[in-house]
Amino acid sequence: MKRSVTSHLDLGLSGPTRLVFAVAAAQGSPFGSQSMSLSVDGNLVMPRELVDITGNRMHVLDAIGSKVVMDYEAVVEGEAAAPVVDDFDLITYLRPSRYCESDSLAPTAGALFSGTRGAALLDAVATWVSDTLTYVPGSSLPTDGAVRTFLGRQGVCRDYAHLCIALLRAMNVPARLAAVFAPGLSPMEYHAVCEAYLDGSDGGPSGWYVVDATRLAPRQSLLRVATGRDAADTAFLTNYGGTVTLDGLEVTAVVDDFGTDDGSQLVQLR
């Protein structure tokens, strides 16, 4: 499988600003080629790259100017290794977090999914969220979490992912958010999905598996960008200092072997 992805951002700045980009494919992706360019007021600059323990790559730029342009492109050939299972992660991703209030939703999850385990639970949560929510661009605020989404019954990909994560954690399944490039997504944008951990105690396979209740793109071709507790850990852009306006955003993602996904099989993010 060969995946080709690009990101383009045009930003307006009100003053000196530290920018943190999380738009590059994760460390460990089998790159065929990769490049990033950043300019401030037309002058090329070099960001600092930071990589955390999960393989998330952050590009940090202290910008003084009024306009920043970022371009990233990569070709990824083949699949990455299966996601690593870490004991600390399995604890972290069971805890409630900023946007995934699993403690508040525990009674709801118990009522909906009591007695369901393993792969059947992942399917049940994805199906319930898909059937219950309506995908409405612009319907949610950046501060909305899983509880707001549950009550409002609508949202976008991050809201679907947050609700899946919260419900699964409430059922004692470690779950996390993955920001991804998604070939087949329409309209094309950055995408967010849930990853849930199965321990194999029900006789099925163990590992991290993708749960995407939006059903908007085949999970087999997704390409990982960042992984975390929720959107607070995986935002494609974070700024400190001056105000930032997003004046332009363009994302592309294509794959040479576009498959179908009926949602029934277990799929790992590779």
How many domain modules? 2
Question: Which CATH architecture of the largest domain?
Answer: Roll
General shape: globular
The N- and C-terminal alpha carbons lie at a distance of: 10 Å
Outline the low-pLDDT stretches: none
The CATH topology of the largest domain is given as C8orf32 fold
Numbering strands along the chain, what is their spatial order in the largest sheet?
4-3-7-1-15
Structural class by helix and strand composition: alpha+beta
The sequence of SSEs as H and E is: EEEEEEEHHHEHEHEEEEHEE
Residues in β-strands, percent: 35-45%
Q: For this structure, what is the CATH class of the largest domain?
A: Alpha Beta
Query: How many beta strands in the DSSP annotation?
Result: 15
| Average residue pLDDT | 96
The main sheet comes to:
5 strands, antiparallel
> Can you count the helices?
6
Q: Could you estimate the helical fraction of the residues in percent?
A: 10-25%
Radius of gyration (CA) equals 18 Å
Q: How does this model look, in words?
A:
By secondary structure, this protein is α+β, with helices and mostly antiparallel strands. The chain has 2 domains: 2-79 and 236-253, Immunoglobulin-like, CATH 2.60.40; 87-180 and 187-224, Roll (C8orf32 fold), CATH 3.10.620. It is built from 6 helices and 15 strands. The protein has helices at residues 87-92, 106-113, 118-132, 146-152, 157-170, 231-234; strands at residues 2-13, 17-21, 31-40, 43-45, 48-51, 57-63, 67-77, 134-135, 154-155, 175-181, 191-199, 206-211, 223-228, 237-241, 244-255. It has a 5-stranded antiparallel beta sheet with strand order 4-3-7-1-15, with no helix packed on it. A 4-stranded antiparallel beta sheet has the order 5-6-2-14, with no helix packed on it. Strand 11 and strand 12 form a beta hairpin.
